[in-house]
TrEMBL record:
Highest taxon listed in the record's lineage: Bacteria
Pfam families: HATPase_c (PF02518), HisKA (PF00512)
EC numbers: 2.7.13.3
Leader sequence residues: none
GO molecular function, one term: phosphorelay sensor kinase activity
The reaction(s) this protein catalyses: ATP + protein L-histidine = ADP + protein N-phospho-L-histidine
GO CC terms in record: plasma membrane
Protein name as annotated: histidine kinase
Domain Histidine kinase as annotated: residue spans: 228-425
Ranges annotated as spanning the membrane: 185-208
Keywords linked to the UniProt accession: Kinase, Membrane, Phosphoprotein, Transferase, Transmembrane, Transmembrane helix, Two-component regulatory system
PROSITE patterns: HIS_KIN
Cellular localization per UniProt: Cell membrane; Membrane
Length: 428
């Protein structure tokens, strides 16, 4: 009998190469994570040092209090007629305060308890206390009784006449309050460090996003521009190759193919010129000039040069002076007019381009399919309207001049591109 194993679905492989913007976003997250890790390490180290210092300080305070109580009790002991008297211990606050005090007198059979003030000390086995008193020397130790820790200090006292060790004073205190305070400090440091780490991580992420946002936007624009440029350059090259191969196969179509090759070469030359100009500007080899010029005259020249029969142009302009680089503005207007001629018609009929210049705005319209009111950057390569590198360059020129480029639907149908440029200052 055959057994069938279940077929495991393979997970789709992740792309080996991440997008540049994706890598930058990953770098931003890693920077925030690194900052958070450094904060965690630093806070953990400072917290450990703070807890160690607090523990040592509290231990020193406990030892100082025990030593003070033991010395005070030792000074209050007296001998009357050769016998040890502890009467003064009952009236002194040092020996009857919060610190436990036990006085053992040495005898032949062992230490004998002559005074006991347990205070709030947990119940400790008498054998432990007698053991400390039997040793005869100064000794400090920590014992555990009833689940609580206690710190004990044994201090011998001498005989008033012979000077020999006559007994031992054992003082002790409950370490529970001290340990609870130390534990509360630890939890406070942990909670504060956690909140600070979360806030620092969030702040680091926000700072990383804010710091890398210009680079991210610049890289995104550059990649979109490169994608559009690749498409715009590939299209005329493909047309040239196709027409050349067609002319070689059919000699009768050579004249028509050559005309198509010339048009594609012109389009390719315009694209290359725009790309080179943009590269020079980005590299700093050419600066954007700021000078006043007649925007209406420049727009009329561009339309007259690029709208040829059978296409027609309807021009309506007013004397308008703009402030910027006329060379770049000419390239932007030429791209807009080319886009209107190429895609601003229905069917195979000629294009009708409208030009309206007034108040620092150039409106170029056509009667083709309208894109609707959408931002320019959403018109990517491969869109149905055919826009790509031309509109990208036009929008880039508008940004260089602190202007705007808007695409919307014309009132009479079709697409209308509105290029707004700043007007010159009054001094100009």
């Amino acid at each position: 009998m055959r057994t069938f194993r279940p077929i495991r679905r393979r997970r789709p492989a992740r792309p080996a190469h991440l997008h540049t913007t994706g890598r930058l976003a990953t770098l931003r997250f890693r920077l925030a994570l690194l900052l958070t890790a450094l904060n965690v390490v630093g806070l953990a180290g400072m917290g450990a040092v703070a807890l160690a210092v607090d523990r040592d300080q509290r231990a020193g305070l406990v030892r100082a209090e025990l030593d003070r109580t033991a010395r005070t009790t030792k000074a209050l002991l007296a001998y009357e007629s050769g016998a040890l008297s502890v009467d003064r211990l009952y009236a002194d606050p040092a020996s009857t305060g919060p610190t436990a005090v036990f006085v053992y007198e040495g005898t032949r059979t062992g230490p004998r308890l002559v005074f006991a003030h347990p205070a709030a000390l947990p119940v400790i086995a008498p054998a432990v206390l007698r053991g400390l008193a039997r040793d005869g020397g100064e000794r400090a130790t920590t014992v555990t009784a009833a689940g609580r820790d206690a710190r004990l200090l044994a201090v011998p006292f001498p005989h008033a006449v012979t000077g020999a060790v006559a007994g031992t004073i054992v003082v002790g205190t409950d370490l529970g309050p001290v340990q609870d305070a130390h534990r509360r400090l630890g939890w406070t440091l942990f909670a504060g460090g956690t909140v600070f780490t979360a806030l620092a991580g969030l702040g680091g992420l926000l700072l990383a996003r804010r710091g890398t946002r210009p680079a991210l936007e610049a890289i995104g624009q550059q990649e979109r521009f490169v994608a559009d440029a690749a498409h715009e350059l590939r299209t005329p090259l493909t047309v040239i190759r196709t027409q050349a191969e067609s002319a070689l196969k059919d000699p009768e179509r050579q004249a028509q193919a050559l005309r198509q090759v010339v048009r594609s070469a012109e389009r390719l030359g315009d694209s290359v010129e725009a790309l080179l100009l943009r590269a020079r500007l980005v590299a700093g080899l050419r600066e954007v000039r700021r000078e006043p010029f007649r925007l209406d005259q420049l727009a009329e020249e561009v339309v007259a040069e690029n709208v040829q029969p059978p296409h027609t142009a309807l021009v309506s302009t007013e004397p308008t002076v703009a402030h910027g680089d006329p060379v770049l503005v000419r390239i932007a207007l030429r791209n807009l007019v080319h886009n209107a001629v190429r895609h601003g018609r229905t069917g195979t009929g000629p294009a009708v381009v409208t030009l309206d210049v007034r108040d620092g705005e150039v409106r170029i319209g056509d009667r083709g399919p309208g894109p609707g009111d959408r931002p320019v950057r959403r018109f990517g390569t491969g869109a149905p309207d055919g826009t790509g590198l031309g509109l990208s360059i036009a929008g880039w020129v508008a940004e260089l001049h602190d202007g705007t480029l808007r695409l919307d639907r014309a009132p009479a149908g079709g697409t209308r591109a509105t290029l707004t440029l700043p007007t010159p200052p009054p001094s100009a």
